[in-house]
């Protein structure tokens, strides 16, 4: 990348300003650029009034090298992006037969009639090139002018996203406006805090002048990204630093890259030809759902039981009534019995379980709201771990999901010569 | 509200621009203002560099009546919001003993030592008032100047949100910058498209001059909000229009307000003293999870079975092997048998089920990827419904969740004199 370029993103849409929809375009475009060594300079969410588009576009065009807009390319009178921007740039709109043909083709393919107002979408600013949109009627547009670039993208995420990765990214690459490949290496960790990581690796990182390290903590995990900004020839050095971090982290190392804990665990199970089932009380289906979100889940996931009431714990998971009476349903023995029961009833090699008080009501003096036991059954035996978290009901469910996944992950990577009659305990 | 004011929101934070975090402040503030009759004018996400803050703040202050900033009030050198804005407004920063006392109090309460750099947080622009922050060290700030208002809020959502609702909203109300109460009435519908609704209600709406109607479609649902902008004395008229819509919508009427389908179904079950269980194949725990996200779920939710493999469908839900052989596991009879099985094994009055191909692999010629059967068991019998959707795996799971909830909802509100031996079929 020759020199850092300023990228500005204008997201149009009243539904964003009304708080009805999350700004997924910011997350997507920001992430895509980050992976190519660029930090998005600013994001402007505005309504689709012509004056607003004009005012903000001028602000951005003056300051930026690349301006990306999303939305406002549809067939209705409310869709004014193209008109407003052509105006601001002193461009004439020309009718493009090839756009019309593409729109007509699309209507033919989906077996619907083109409405007359779709003709509006076949106009483009005279110097704009078309970015094809096989998934919708509005094509994207790419316009180079005075050394700057304007990219107009349609609003629907399923149209915008492939257009961005398949057509915009390669063009930006060719112009040397972004890095040609992911320019950083991400290390994912679990079970160590951010400041502990900083201390652990300070001397290693200091030994490599020019190294940039960015931390990001989320739900008990800490990721850090290593890069040598604007130095593409130090990839091998980056790789060896990352490998050294991995060795030092031991079982607290999760992965290089972007895989989630559920993906990592699925991969480990698949490599071992093993299957998993779940027995959930307080997480209430969240763990099963995390696995079934993954493509090809049925290879490793046998199924799950959400045993929200004690009857279900006894009847469907075979947890002995006496165990619940002696220890209450929120206890280590019950968590372990639930996991054993799931593995048995669903014929799986491994099983994970959860039982606890997600709140806001419930809890006891010994185990107040936020107390969760996660359980594990593996071919080597059973184990469990007690946690106590603050936060809302949904936050506690998510923490419990991560904790259960991590308990299983640590067992899956445990050395074969670990004591066979007891599971490795987690720190 | 005397006259519509322009509200601008500046959200600071590189993690937003890098696509690492969603812009929840936009969603929250936008929604809060919308409930008070104001559409946020623009949202600007920028980094926390002083120049950037200065440049964008000036742009917003020139155009807006109220500028709200989030973030950059912390104790580190990266936190520059206060300094940059004071500078832009020609304000001096003064040391405020009362802020320091509040910070010291807070550290005492949580049993930690105040770090010397927290002293920085005790400075405020000379004309700013303090918005107290019982949940963090950074106070918010409120500054009135030249008839305009600047509100500075801390970045953590759990600190920002109560500060906004408890301190900012009442001040804006007092100035008559926002409506004193929710000024619209929201009608939620399911099973009717947006354009069909428009046609159905056009003449009703036209009969009330000044009525504003805003539609919002999401996942098979369409909401519309009715309001008389700037006319607070027509609340009763609004109410009667909404009631007329409800009557005309019949069972396609979901609710007034903001309740989700899961909340509506939970309420209906609770009113009837009835319980629910789930049998999920393609939704894989998503339905159970939606119920267990709700506080007090255990009153109505007995539990669920995620029967991802056929063995589980047979062994845990008692689906006859022959039924699967004759119809395949993705079929109406299997969906109904799954629901019956769940109700029986989990001793619930009602049960809902899902089986289908969420993709991207799988499917048959007759039932390609995207085909889902949802099943229902009720004290009156069993029913099922076939759906076919486009979209990714997660999108299809979400649609199936909504469809299953709606099948149950329609049964729960069916008139008692509906034919007892068969369930009401949905349109």
Kindly list the characteristics that best describe this protein.
homodimer, about 425 residues, alpha/beta, Molybdenum Cofactor Biosythetic Enzyme, Chain A, Alpha-Beta Plaits, Maf protein, 6-stranded mixed β-sheet, 5-stranded mixed β-sheet, 14 helices
Describe the structure.
Two copies of one chain form a homodimer. Chain A is an alpha/beta fold. Chain A has 14 helices and 17 strands. The first copy, chain A, has helices at residues 14-17, 24-34, 50-63, 81-89, 97-109, 157-174, 194-206, 235-249, 261-271, 286-292, 310-315, 321-327, 332-345, 393-412; strands at residues 7-12, 42-46, 66-70, 93-95, 123-125, 128-131, 140-145, 148-153, 184-190, 212-218, 221-227, 253-256, 276-280, 301-306, 350-356, 371-378, 381-388. In chain A, a hairpin with a 2-residue loop joins strand 16 (371-378) and strand 17. Chain A starts with 6 loop residues before the first strand and ends in a 15-residue tail after the last helix. The model of chain A has no long low-confidence stretch (mean pLDDT 91). Chains A and B meet through helix 1, helix 2, strand 2, helix 3 and helix 10 of A and helix 1, helix 2, strand 2, helix 3 and helix 10 of B.
């Amino acid at each position: 990348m020759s020199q850092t370029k300023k990228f500005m993103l204008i997201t149009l849409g009243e539904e964003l300003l009304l708080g009805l929809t999350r700004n997924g375009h910011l997350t997507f475009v920001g992430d895509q650029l980050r992976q190519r060594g660029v930090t998005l300079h600013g994001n402007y969410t505005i309504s689709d009034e012509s004056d607003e588009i004009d005012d903000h576009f001028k602000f951005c065009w003056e300051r930026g090298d690349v301006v990306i807009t999303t939305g406002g390319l549809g067939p209705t009178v409310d869709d004014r992006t193209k008109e407003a921007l052509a105006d601001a740039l002193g461009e004439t709109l020309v009718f493009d037969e090839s756009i019309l043909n593409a729109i007509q083709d699309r209507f033919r393919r989906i077996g619907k009639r083109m409405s007359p107002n779709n003709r509006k979408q076949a106009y483009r600013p005279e110097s704009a090139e078309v970015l094809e949109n096989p998934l919708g009627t509005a094509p994207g547009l790419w316009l180079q002018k005075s050394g700057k670039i304007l990219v107009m993208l349609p609003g629907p995420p399923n149209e915008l996203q492939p257009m961005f990765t398949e057509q915009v990214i390669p063009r930006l690459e060719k112009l040397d406006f972004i890095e040609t490949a992911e320019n950083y290496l991400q290390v994912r960790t679990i079970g160590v805090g951010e400041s502990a990581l900083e201390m652990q690796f300070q001397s290693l990182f200091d030994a490599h002048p020019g190294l940039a390290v960015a931390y990001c903590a989320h739900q008990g995990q800490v990721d850090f990204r290593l890069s040598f900004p604007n130095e593409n020839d130090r990839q091998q050095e980056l790789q060896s630093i990352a490998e050294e971090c991995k060795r030092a982290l031991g079982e607290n190392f999760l992965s290089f890259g972007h895989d989630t804990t559920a993906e990592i665990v699925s991969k480990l199970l698949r490599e071992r030809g093993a299957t998993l089932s779940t027995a959930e009380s307080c997480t209430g289906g969240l763990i099963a759902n995390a696995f079934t979100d993954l493509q090809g889940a049925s290879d490793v996931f046998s199924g799950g039981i959400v045993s929200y009431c004690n009857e279900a714990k006894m009847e469907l998971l075979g947890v002995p009534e006496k165990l619940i009476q002696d220890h209450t349903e929120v206890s280590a023995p019950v968590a372990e019995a639930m996991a054993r029961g799931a593995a048995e009833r669903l014929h799986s090699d491994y099983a994970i379980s959860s039982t606890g008080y997600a709140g806001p009501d419930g809890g006891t003096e010994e185990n107040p709201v936020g107390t969760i036991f996660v359980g594990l059954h593996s071919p080597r035996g059973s184990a469990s771990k007690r946690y106590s978290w603050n936060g809302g009901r949904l936050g506690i469910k998510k923490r419990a999901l991560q904790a259960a996944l991590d308990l299983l992950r640590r067992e899956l990577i445990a050395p074969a010569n670990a004591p066979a009659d007891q599971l490795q305990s987690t720190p």
